[in-house]
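Handout, section 4.2: multi-component inputs.
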Amino acid sequence: MNLRVVGANLVVSIKSFYREKTAMFFTIAFPILLIFVFGTIFMGQENVSFDLYVQDLDHTDFSALLVKTLRLNGKFKITKVEPAINATQYAKDNKLNLVLIIPEGYERSLNQRIDTDDPDTSVTITYIYDPSSTSVSTKMQILNSVFARINQQVFGKPPFIRTAEISILNKKYRFIEFFIPGVIAMAVMTASLFGTVNLNTELLQKGIIRKLATTPITRTDWILSNIAYQFILAVVSTIAMLLVSYAVFNVSLRINAWLPVFIVLDIFVFVGIGMILTRFVKEAQSASAAANAIMFPMMFLSGSFFPIEMMPGFLQTLARMLPLYYVNEGLRASMVFVDNMTALRYSAIIGIFATVVFILGIMATEWRSPHPR
Amino acid sequence: MTNRAEQVIEVEKLTKRYGDLLAVNDISFNVRKGEVFALLGPNGAGKTTTVEIIETIRTPTSGKVSLLGMDVTKKKHDIVPRIGVLPQGFSSFDRITVRETIQYYSRLFCRRDTDIDGLIELVDLKDKTKEQYKNLSGGLKQRLGIAIVLVNDPEVVFLDEPTTGLDPRARREVWEVLLGLKKKGTTVFLTTHYMEEAEFLADTVAIISTGKIIAMGSPGKLTESNANYMVLTLQSVDEKVFGIVLKMGFEPVHDDHKDIKVRVEHTDDVQKILNAIKDAGASCLSLDVRKPNLEEVFLKLTGEALCEDPAGGRGAE
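Output:
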């Protein structure tokens, strides 16, 4: 290995990157945009407020109290629907997914129930709803729980089974804090995979490799300089992502030695895969398509954006076979849970994978034009 | 007789096969120190394979090749720092400037003494030092390529089709740079499929066809020894002239300029043709008698014409 040669190559790669605005955008700005978009969505979910349309046909003090109870629950922003309007038609016309109807005689029935304690005396609240809406079932669940609580408080006895929530974490973490390690792992993967594929295909297709093969630079020098270049990009990109995360979303993530460890392992895995790909797919467009075919399953199945527990069983098994899953979980173990043993276990798994893939990648890299045409 | 110590490149019974394809077939030649040696042949003749074996990029199937007194199959690491190579279809990193590209290659050779400004001046790129590679024209790219070839002050320079795909003006500009190298006494190994280029630059020309060297010598000697005839060119507006010459038993042909070309064995034949034209009452605007050029020698030897690929792009082999 010749450090001067590695350095020369590194300088050329960094200058090329700096002058290629598209690459700059996808490596640095795009992950930050993802954090902004998803961060905003997740932040909003923590204080979510649903629209609820209520038609009060009873128009009494008790029905008004019910509406007030729903409002005070904090989950609903209530809009009243005039009693004279046909609620079903109104929901269709205004594309509403739920209209709640308090029937006429609500107060009378309630008084009768209190006076007589007759269990057959009841009142039916109607949900006019659109079953194709994704959020309507959540709204109905919240409403059902509110009504169950009212039923229990007004007429029943105190519950026998109560629940208590105790978090296994010292601190309550927000979803954004789970999300950011996934974005870091994904951004490093994308830059390493596409960076290697693009660089190697350019080298082959443009014939630059023919010239390099007649200079003292060796395959090892070339690969090492690529690794160093990817590491610098990953560090810059990760710092940018973390700065935005701390500044905008005030996240609580621990930075420790595991972060560079997982970044380096992530780079070795995907530079290795990139080198193997370019051995078999030499045309730039095909290589890019092949890199996409690897990147997308990794991105969506390995738990970068959402927990794999949300997926069916067979997809969870598949996710555990993907290297990015171990980078994601390793980074979360170190940055979110500060769980060194789990981080160590995942780093060992991904380390073995990285070693195998990288050696195969070195073997696959041709250091000359394949054959004269 | 040439002193063996003066031989910079020695190729002996070199053969290279790619599977069933015999790319180079038992060729032998030597290149002297300080000479410009041109390997001339059409696309697919085996030029690039031959030069890449000498440059240590490829290994021969059989035969012996030595460069600067070293076996190319065993001494790659000793040879590479002492040679400069401009590969066929040379290309570099798009977003790196002219100066940065030369610096980059100089660093690859671990040279701290490269005269970057001198090289830029040599290839006349002073106005383009901050221009990125992707913005250079074909001719400028090739001139940059030649500057890169010289970053390590090489003892032997290999130029594989350095002007293929360039327009005539750009080609001339590259030739001027190569003439400068020749004047400096640099040993140059050139492959080309342009006859004019070989005639203009080379001290020795080896003609290669389907992997075999079929003739070798100085351009003058090659034409002398392989063509014992002369070419008479008649510029005429008279349609009858072609028929008159044909009737005399010669084989006239029209060239690209509609002039009539006739191959004649003796100077007497020229006089006979002129007399016959005069007797028939026809006339010529001008005439020219000359020895055949390399192109015509090549045509005679191989039965095929040397030409650039139709797209004007770079051929490869």
